[in-house]
Design a protein that fits this description.
Blueprint lengths: L2 H21 L3 H27 L5 H24 L5 H23 L8 H23 L11 H27 L8
């Protein structure tokens, strides 16, 4: 088992603890949820860097890494939707794009072809992680004396989640229009 794959497994193992903390009330639970999500997000970056730098790219990693990424962000978005901070339609847009593009990639890969991640997909991923962290951390800053955002928390989250849904949808369209062109489907 490579270090990169171990980091991916750690990210997967952190997801239930993240969801548990998100389901509990209180500032400590929210702080722990934000901390767990941040650590899991860092492992996502680290496992990719380690896999490329030390030639630890494996078939298992190719399967587990995107699965762990999707499960981590899906769990956050589902918890925000359950708490009423995220509109269910925004969640549906994100889930539909992710599942559709992942399905397309699997079908294309079964034919021996690989379609790499485009800039729009990378931007989408970064935005999703940043928005989740902002939504987790905004309530925490009032405990250090910064309270002027308290009255706007729901509005800020609403705007950020809809922005995330829009960028996620755009990246899916971009992927279908450009990533699946014949020149990108070569073996």
């Amino acid at each position: 088992m490579t270090l990169a794959n171990i980091l991916t497994l750690v990210r997967l193992a952190l997801i239930p603890f993240f969801v548990l903390c998100m389901s509990l009330d209180g500032i400590l639970a929210l702080f722990l949820a934000a901390l767990i999500f941040a650590i899991a997000s860092i492992t996502d970056r680290l496992d990719g860097v380690i896999a490329r730098k030390y030639n630890q790219i494996t078939d298992l990693g190719k399967i587990l890494d995107p699965l762990a990424d999707k499960l981590l962000t899906f769990s956050a978005f589902v918890m925000f939707t359950a708490s009423g901070l995220m509109h269910p339609v925004a969640l549906l847009i994100i889930l539909a794009r992710e599942l559709a593009i992942t399905s397309i990639r699997v079908v294309v890969a079964s034919g021996g072809k690989v379609v790499g991640a485009a800039f729009s997909g990378k931007l989408k991923t970064v935005l999703q992680i940043v928005v989740i962290l902002v939504a987790l951390c905004l309530p925490l800053i009032s405990y250090i004396g910064i309270t002027f955002l308290d009255d706007y928390y729901t509005l800020i989250c609403d705007i950020l989640f809809w922005l995330t849904a829009a960028v996620t949808l755009w990246s899916g369209i971009d992927y279908c229009m450009h990533g699946l062109s014949l020149k990108n489907l070569k073996k």
